[in-house]
Amino acid sequence: MRAVTILILAPALSVMCGGAGSPYELPADFDWNTPVNQVLFRHWTKHECVPAAMASDAVFLRRVALTVAGRLPTAAEVREFLADKRPGKRAAAIEKFLNSPEYADMQAMRFADMLRIKSEFPINLWPNAVQLWYRVVRDELAADRPLDAMFREMLTASGSNFRVPHANFFRASADRSPRGMAATAMLTVMGMRLERLPEARAEKFAVLFSRIRFKSTHEWKEEIVYTDYHPAQLEAVLPDGAPVSVASPETDPRRVFAAWLTERGEEDFCRAVTNRVWHWVFGRGIYPVADDLPMVPAGEAVPFCPELQEFLNAELRTRHYSLRHLYRVILNSAAFQAASQPGAEARTRHFAAYPVHRLEAEVVVDALASVLGGYDRYMSVIPEPFTFLPPRTRAVTIADGSISTGVLDNFGRPPRDSGTLDERNAKSAESQNLYLMNSAGLSGRIGRYCRGLQKRYRKENDRLNGLFLELMSRYPTEHERAVFRAYQRSMARREQVQAWTDTVWVLINSKEFLFYH
């Protein structure tokens, strides 16, 4: 019956990408002449691509809160932002979210996926190392530690994986052979796949990682990461094919690669970072696949806008590898603040319209919990040892890739086995629809939420405003108000309370709720 209600009521409500009929605003104070916008406009002009109008204030606020902080804006935040007529309020909102604790949480989740932070098979970092490494990564992201320094330490760290957090970088490789660790390093810091190199070059590059050793201690699951102390003369090549001779252990071969990465290989490092961040913001990279970058762009493996790629690389370098600054540049761009236009494939392909894409599994679950209440409980399924996370833990903050739930897995949370972006499944599935339409747990939470809504808002118009502000981050349109009232009047008086729960079911099943738009 509930599914039928959703199918009947949903088309009448404006639950598609910003609310049908809601006017797009053109902020008079938006700076169209920033360097990044000039690059984008040159590209759009070259390809005869007329950019979409700007997204409304409500759409923008929801978009930036979810992208940066992994959460919905509160009803109070939406009211305040929509009522604010001061110039520069969008830039101010971006700064607010970039400097929030939730920013560090959201970036730590993304880095944990990339770094394969997981206690169990096939990574086997174990809980002590997982919690230590995750906490340090999050703290460094919160402090905006320069990314070149952060990754250089990961590539070269030695010591106990329980006491030297970044020593877990190579331990988090499922394949600890020299070739496997070379592939891990190349994917993580260059966004490239080792198998794309010529076979002879791949083998010689792997030599740089052939001296990494792991030694167990008497502490449960602890390992020491170190460079083999036996003398050896290594003949290897760097990713660009340049030969290098290394006398180990006087020179740690890992340091040779790390030095190359931030000197001659700096462009490859910057390109890997900027493509991942663009992917995290828009759902796809500047290149077709953001972490399968070619040595030399050719064929279909080219950036949609080479000038933009070069510009963002330069921004990252000149601002001392600040991740927060890179986000700031992208979020203040006309591409991020453009309206979404489903069906406008040419515009979307060139990012002249915002590409609609699904929320991450953790963000979906947290969004439902933050509005409806009833956060899920998280614990490990393998007793080595049992790990119980505190009540009201946000899914975005789960450090361990081994700790999940059926709902998170259903919505595509990655297993963190390979560190590739495509491990996260952002596709919609029938099993997700069944959960969102028929979950008994959701039904109870929605009932409690609607009863609380009635207590908080005595007037029906205020109640409808509150419902939309909390779930959709905007006010309902006049059309939606009329549809709701007509639906409510179609019921017997004693049953009209059901209109509220039915409306919540409709809204949480809408594309507007489940997608970045």
What descriptive keywords fit this protein?
49% helix, globular, 24 helices, mainly alpha, single chain, two-stranded antiparallel sheet, 517 residues, 7 strands, three-stranded antiparallel beta sheet
What does the model show?
- There is one protein chain.
- The chain is 49% helix and 5% strand.
- It contains 24 helices and 7 strands.
- Strands 1-3-2 form a 3-stranded antiparallel sheet.
- A hairpin with a 5-residue loop joins strand 4 and strand 5.
- Helix 1 crosses helix 23, helix 3 packs parallel to helix 5 and helix 10 packs across helix 11.
- The chain is globular and about 85 Å long.
- About 3% of the residues have low confidence.
Average pLDDT, to the nearest integer?
92
Side by side, the strands of the main sheet go 1-3-2
Q: Based on DSSP secondary structure assignment, what is the total number of beta strands?
A: 7
Share in helix:
40-55%
What's the alpha carbon Rg, rounded to whole Å?
25 Å
Strand content: 5-15%
Which structural class do the helices and strands define?
A: mainly alpha
List unreliable stretches of 5+ residues: 14-26
Assembly state (oligomeric): single chain
**Coarse shape:** globular
For the termini, the CA-CA separation is 29 Å
User: How many helix segments?
Assistant: 24
Main sheet properties: 3 strands, antiparallel
What does the secondary structure layout of this molecule look like, with pairings?
Layout: H1 2-9, H2 35-46, H3 57-69, H4 75-83, H5 89-98, H6 101-115, H7 127-142, H8 147-156, E1 159-160, H9 168-171, H10 178-190, H11 199-206, E2 212-216, E3 223-227, E4 232-237, E5 243-248, H12 253-261, H13 266-282, H14 306-318, H15 323-331, H16 345-349, E6 357-358, H17 361-372, H18 406-410, H19 430-438, H20 440-456, H21 460-472, H22 478-489, H23 498-508, H24 511-514, E7 515-516
Antiparallel strand pairs: 1-3, 2-3, 4-5, 6-7
